[in-house]
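Teaching note: in complex prediction, the entire set of molecules is handled at once rather than each chain in isolation. The prompt given to students was simply: 'Predict the structure of this complex.' The entities are:
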Amino acid sequence: MSFKQPLSLSDERFTAVYQVTGSLKEAAERAFDICVEQTVEFPIDLIHREDIREQVVGEVLGVESVEADRHLATIRFAGDIVGGELTQLLNVLFGNISLKPGIRLVSVTLPDTMLARFRGPRFGLQGLRSLTGIAGRPLVCTALKPMGLSAPALADIAYRFALGGVDFIKDDHGLADQAFAPFSERLKRITAALRKAADRTGRPCLYMPNITAPSDQVMARAETAKDFGAGGLLIAPGITGFDTLRRIAEDDRIGLPVFSHPTMLGTFTAHPESGISHGVLYGLLNRLAGADATIFPHFGGRFTFTKEACGELAKSATGPLGGLAPMWPVPAGGMSLEKVEEMTQFYGTDIILLIGGNLHRKGPDLTRNARELMERL
Amino acid sequence: MSFKQPLSLSDERFTAVYQVTGSLKEAAERAFDICVEQTVEFPIDLIHREDIREQVVGEVLGVESVEADRHLATIRFAGDIVGGELTQLLNVLFGNISLKPGIRLVSVTLPDTMLARFRGPRFGLQGLRSLTGIAGRPLVCTALKPMGLSAPALADIAYRFALGGVDFIKDDHGLADQAFAPFSERLKRITAALRKAADRTGRPCLYMPNITAPSDQVMARAETAKDFGAGGLLIAPGITGFDTLRRIAEDDRIGLPVFSHPTMLGTFTAHPESGISHGVLYGLLNRLAGADATIFPHFGGRFTFTKEACGELAKSATGPLGGLAPMWPVPAGGMSLEKVEEMTQFYGTDIILLIGGNLHRKGPDLTRNARELMERL
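The expected output is the structure of the full assembly:
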C-alpha cells in the first residue's frame, strides 16, 4: 500500500548533550529512553518499521561519566523531525523529558543548515554599536519603575535619566497595560520625553517598552511601539513562549532591537540536576529566536546565579553560531554603580549594563546619578 | 504636578501561597522579598510614594511553618496590577522569583471578579459528555504514533481505532508539520478516515490535531483544523505559552474542545522545593486558559508524578472555581488496559483515559484492541 512507502529523511542531524543522574548503567538506559521519548514516544518493540527505528528514533552517540552518579549522554536526532519549527525543536530537545527529573539539557549543536533557518539577532553586537554610535565602552540601560507610577511620572523619570546620558531605558517587565500606566499612553509620553531629552543632549536614548502581552496583542503592541518611535522592544519568552520572541524579532515591518527578559524561566536553571543549562536557555535559545540582548541575573546580585553559569551564558550569547550574529549579555538584578568595574572585567566591554532601582539610590537628582555612572565607564 | 496624583486602585485582591525553604526568620524575610520582587521590583526604602508602598507592593498575610525548614507564606496582591491579562498574572505569580530557588507557588485564590474575566473551559465535563453523547463511563482517547508515519498511514490507524469505538484520537504531540506527515494532509486524510469509520459505527470519533506551532501559525492551524471538521485541538502551553491556549480556546470562530499537553512544563513540578505545584500548573492555569482537558502523567506509569500530586491536580481541574466549568483530567504516560480499573477507582469516571502505544501491544488488530478496552469500561 502506498502509505507503507519507506521513509527517506535527509542526512541532516543535530546533537544534544544531556546530563543524566544515576549509575552509569541507569544513565545508559535513560539515554536510550530520551531517544525514544523525544521522538516516536512509542514502545520500541512495537515499531515494526525499520526505517522509523533507524531514522526517526534518536541515537546515543556516547555516555561519559563526569562523577559516579552524573553522566553526559550525547544524542543525535534527525533534523527532519523538527520540520523547520522552533516550537518543535524545543519539543524534541526538552519536551516530555522535562517531566522526568534527573535529566538536564546542557548543550545543543545544530548544523549550519539548521542554523541558517534562523535569522538570529537582527542587530547583535555590531548592530547596536552602529545604532547607538557608541564604541569602546559598555552600553548602559536603566529601567522605569516602580510599578504604580503613572505614564507621565514614568516619562519624567525617563527624561531625567536620558539627560544623564544612558543609552537605553526599558520598561520594568511588570509594566503591562495596567490602568495606572496604559501601554499606549506610556509609549506616547515616554517617546516624547526622550525626543525632548535628545534635543538637549544631541544624542538619542532608546526606549524599549515591554510588549509581553496576551497572544493576540503582542504584535499590535510591537506595532504601536514602532509607530511611536520606540527604540526597541522588551519581551519575556518565559511567558509568551520563545517563538513569539522569534516572530517579533524576525518581522521586517517592526525591525527593532529586541531585549529578552528571563522572568518565569528561572525554574529551568534552578536545580543543577534537571532543567536546561544557562548557556542553552538564556544563550542559545534567545539567540536562535533573534534576541539582540539577553537579560540575566549577574552573580553576586540579589539572585543566585553562579559565576560559572554567567560565564557559560555569556559565551553562548557571543560565541560562534553559524552565521548568527552575537547577542549582548545584559547582566542585571540588583546591580549598582560599584559593580561596574567588576562586571566589565568579567564580561569585557561588549555588555549592556542594566542598573535599575539602584540608580535612584544616590539621591533624587536622577540626571546626576546617571551622569556619575556614565563617567565611570 | 499632575503626574503625582495619588494612586487609587480598586479593592480587588487575590492571594498566592508560596512554600519557602529556610529558617522561619529567613522565610519571613523571603516572603516580604516576594511582595517586592513580584510587584515594584525596586528598593523599598527608595519608594517615597506611600500609596505605591501600600497598594502596589504585595502584603504578607501570614507565614506558617510546615516543617522546621519549610514554611507557607500567604501573600495578597492587588488585582489591578494584573491589568486583566493572563500573561501579567503569570508574571506576578511566578515571574522573577522563578529565578530564586527555594520558592514554590503552591496555591492561588482569585476573587470572583477576576475569575469572571476568564471564559474557562468552553465544554468542560458536561460539554464533552453532551458532545460525545457518552454518560456513565470514562471517555477514551488514543494517540496517533509513531512519528515518521505518513499521513495516510496515520489515517489508517485512526480508522481502525475508531472502528473499535474510542471517543477521541489525538495527534502525538511530536507531530507538527514535518514533511513526512504535513499538518494539512494529516487533517484531510484523518478527518476523512474518521467520517468513513463513523458511517460504519454510527457514532463519531473526534480527531484532535496538534496545533502547537510557530506563533504566527497557531491560529491558522486551528482554522485549518476547524475547516476540515476536526473534533478538537491539542496544544502545549509549555511551548506556546498559556495565553496562546487561552486565545485559541476563547475564539468563538474556532469553538472546539481543547486538550492541553504538558510537554516542556515538567521542570516546574520536578523539585518539591521550587517551581509551581501540580494543582496550580496543570490544573488552575490550564483551566483559567480555557483547556477542556489537561493531560498529565498518571502515577505508576513511565513518569514520576506521585499519587498525591495526581490527586491535587485532579481536584484543581474539577473543584469549584467561580463560574468556570470543570476540566477533564486526562491521566496518561505509559498507561495500559490493565490500569483502567485502578484509574477509575482513583479519579472516578469523569476522566479521559489516554492510552497510546500500549493499545498496539495486544496485536496488530487495532480495532480489536480498542474494542477490548472499550468493553472493560
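Point out the following to students. Chain B touches chain A through 97 residues (CB under 8 Å). The longest helix of chain B spans residues 183-201.
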